[in-house]
Amino acid sequence: MRILKILSIAAALAVGGGGLQAAETEKLYVECGGSFSGFVAKMKAQAEAMTYPPQVTDPFFGAANYLQRTINADRRQGIFNTDFIDFSRKLIAQYRLDKGRQNAQKYDAIFSRIEQELGVPRGILLSFWAFETDFGAFTGDFNTLDTLMTLSHDCRRPELFQPQVFAALELYARGQFSVNQQGAWAGEVGQVQMLPMDIMQRGYDGDGDGTVDLDNSVADSLFSGANMLRSFGWRPNEPWMQEVVVPDSMPWEESGVQPEDYRPVEEWAAWGVRPRSGSWQGPDLEAALMLPMGHEGPAFIIYPNYQALFEWNQSFVYVATAAYFATRLEGAPVYDPGNAPARLSDAEMKALQRKLVARGHDVGEVDGILGAGTRAAVQAEQERLGLPADAWPTRELLNRL
């Protein structure tokens, strides 16, 4: 499910006197494309230049195969082309709510330790655990080595995946990775879906047995997930989201989920924004107003911890849903769906993106996905045209453009 955002490794990572001394993200080690066998040979040569011995590189790279189904999965992420209401209703099934609450009780001691030691609440961990692998029920059936090598060979994003191959090689040299390892289509493994570089930096021995087993140990998985969130900037014991009610007179152009959209909670309150239930969870914090489907749909105040979730996954709709599900698991009511206009069709979204590009906006790829660039462009054009600048694309906006 994850859309990748991989951070740089600053620490040295070494095996004995040689091996991987430093792995950098967004680094192209060898030229992508060409024959796969030739690519494998170049990656192997690069590993040997990094002083990995043949007894490590021969079996590791000798086991690598091209995996077309990985490429197919990479090109097929249509689940993210949906809106928040449809996406959240699809993912937050009753069995996930029930199973989440059962696991909160079953592993209460583990969650309590994490909350005390790392300050990450159980709702957030349960949410990602649920969405990534259905609480460990299915961790993936793609060969991880094949997947990482295939995506490294593919010229779409090789700079993201080639460093992961060498991180996997490092783990293999340490006896902590198997060429038969199974995982997700993008190379993540284990119950909370971590990439090899994540495991090296943030893997956490939660059960104290001297190893980090993300496939079989719930404690290791949950502690590692919490440790990863902490490294992404999670602030201990602070809220992340709560549903709010907004007045019709709200200056909608002030809404958004980027860091520059945050302001003191008291300013939102002065505009008439109020919690839908209970009191403000972070009255002394800065917060942003998130309108996942515009000013007529659900409304949420998000706190600084929400930004850390974007380091886990880059999909707006995924993060919004995961954050909301976490609040449900911690007792929040079902959100008010409001009366948001229907999402544009894929063809309409692409047409809108092309019109935005023609007006000089950077929306990234014209792919029909309502990403950060498209939202910013929509909001700017709404404000220019005198429409409610809530970043939700409508047919009226499409027609006006």
Write up what this structure looks like.
It comes from Psychromarinibacter sediminicola. InterPro entries: Lysozyme-like_dom_sf (IPR023346), MltB-like (IPR043426), MltB_2 (IPR011970), Peptidoglycan-bd-like (IPR002477), PGBD-like_sf (IPR036365), PGBDSf (IPR036366), SLT_2 (IPR031304). This is Peptidoglycan-binding protein. The chain is mainly alpha-helical and 401 residues long. The chain folds into three domains: 231 residues, no CATH class; 89 residues, no CATH class; 55 residues, no CATH class. It is 45% helix and 5% strand. It has 17 helices and seven strands. The strands form two sheets. The protein has a five-stranded antiparallel beta sheet with strand order 4-6-7-3-5. It has a two-stranded antiparallel ribbon with strand order 1-2. The longest helix has 16 residues. It is globular and about 70 Å long. The N terminus is likely disordered.
